[in-house]
## 1
Amino acid sequence: MVEQLNIVVDWKRLWAGGLATAGVAALIAWLGTLVCRALLDVDVADSAAAFDVTDTFVGNYALTAALFALVATALAHVLSLTTPTPRAFFSWIVGLLTAAAVVLPFTRGDDLAIQVCAAVINLLIGAAIGSLLSTVLSRTVFDRERSWQG
């Protein structure tokens, strides 16, 4: 556990929650792409993925979502050590970045159906990252002075 003043961070559980969140985010990217392709006959644009590491767009999109979840975990860890209300700041930052990720597909020259699918998938990924890691923060960051938690 990391301790600063009266704040205690159970970093092992925080990062375990971050890894689990990365898995969920990757699954959302994979399932969202699958739904768009199989049910809606919409091929989500390859530009939605930030990395070109794997041979498939779905793999790159899932990897991108997982990486963003891990970056969000690092942000949550830093905020928990430096700010008086880490969950509030975390929620605002993730919420604003999610809003940007939802708008981003509409800045590209793709068809409207592709843009909408990418925006919805990005919204679901951002909502999952924000809600899951906010809950993880509530279970892994303790203020000894103000909390009933030991």
## 2
Amino acid sequence: NPIQENTYLIYNDALNAIIVDPGFYFSSEQRIFQEFVEEKQLKPIQLVNTHCHLDHVFGNKWVNEHYHLDLWTHKDELPLLELAPESGKQWGLPFDNFKGKVHLLKEGDKVWLDEAAFEVLEIPGHSPGSICLYNAPQKILIAGDALFRESIGRTDLPGGNHNSLIKNIKEKLLTLPDDTVVYSGHGPATTIGHEIKYNPFL
């Protein structure tokens, strides 16, 4: 989308899939995503928002309409979700918001892709209820906007808290194995080990 957000589609050999942070704003982005799902014959089974800033929720409504999925996110993100269309207007990016059913995720919950579990880690700071999804066996972290390659999420938006973000990253993310691959909401992938060595914010 215009804010260059990363949407993640996690799928397995059974062709079931979880959609994380659908950021499609333009119909061309929706079409690319839909064509990939059809080409791979995937079956989306769950929609998750790591947080609800507008660039991560642009595609929620479209996903709900096309794949009939409810939304899963943290309770502290619900005010941001409700205000997202107003934020869109302020950025010159108007959009129709998701109006479907919302299920709540909290620390320690599991997001299941068949037998594979992604543990929910609460990492507030970039936004009040930001979560990450961690799969220990494959050492994968879907980080949202908490942690980037050699950077961290901005904390100057409403509900942001710099000290909270740094504390949560150090206590919950940097303690993961060094070779854990971090898939962020913007920019390239990185690893926990790389960020321990080279992230100037940490």
## 3
Amino acid sequence: VTLAANGGRVRTRDGVLVSRFTVPPDEVIVVNGIRCARAERALFDELRRLRGRRERTVAIDMACALPISSIVRMDRYLRIRRWYRDVRTVRPSLHLADEHSWSPQECWFRMIWEVDAGWGHPICNREVHDLDGRFVGIPDLIDPRRAVVGEFSGELHRDKEQHASDVARAADFRAVGLEIVEVVGREMRQRDVVVQRL
């Protein structure tokens, strides 16, 4: 839990991270009797704590997925608080974010797709139907121009039943003219491998 000490003598300890930034009254709400930072302020503090553009993008995506905030609300917050320290550091991640990501791994895959491979921003988690209107599936990422879908296969996909379902689903995507690119967790650290596969 991150605590805003607002100049108090609270110290960081196991399970508690102390922020020395002052939180003004208009950025505070009371939830169940506990003073809390508003969602955009809490997200902003988390973003400036994180060190990389991609890590920040994942945090924005997941805040939007809950949904405790949105890209529009966060953009408005950064404009209103433009004099705050670190706003310029945080803003590039906002431009890379997508409100339709469903997991951190999808975000990492999307950034490899978009930034490293240079494929541009894919459509995230949208329904695909064939020409007769039959539902085909919801891929993690899709590029309709290239006719490619991207899927992250995490641990849950190792189950025999799930694997059989995934194979059938890949066949359904191919049947409507979409090529499928799958990645697994350890490959996220090998961006060049994912780029080559794309």
## 4
Amino acid sequence: MLIVHDWDGLTDYEMRRADMLAALGYTAFAIDVYGADVDPQTVDENRALSRALYADRDTFKERLLGSIEAAASIPGATDDMVMMGYCFGGAAALEAARAGAELDGFVSFLGGLGLPEGQSYDAVAAPVMVFHGTADPVSGMADLAALLDALEGAGVAHGAEVFGGARHPFTVWGSGDYDLAADQASWAGLLGFLDQRLGGIDDAS
């Protein structure tokens, strides 16, 4: 399991999600696409770092694909891998999918869903799963519909679970918009997707 961080960089949030997956028997690897020496502390820094990668898709893709290559060599890694992420990380998972990363699945939680200029889903190599809130102010229902249309048009297997009234950070513990029911349901949906794509926890351990 490859977990891409939110726009505030690699934090305890992603590490806790990795621990949750590890407790279930998965090998979880938290990816830092900003770099080990970068530790944003403010909203302005978060915005600048994420926008820089959105503006330089070649670098974004290079770092994601490089992280996949590095993860393949860690103890416990197997040939079966799924990439997931929250918010910025959800957009990153879709970026890796469009780049043709040879993984077994891609999962976006409340991610940015827009299709960058010049990109398509024609090279996606595995199913895409999306978990999203209907009240998300970052990517709305029109963006979700456009994504699903694009995946359907490209012949990519896909699924989506939508949570009524859930806002952008509905999975982030302690945030003002945390939604326990949506968080738990989306996590259960993730585990179902992993069971389907990776053949169950016993095979992934």
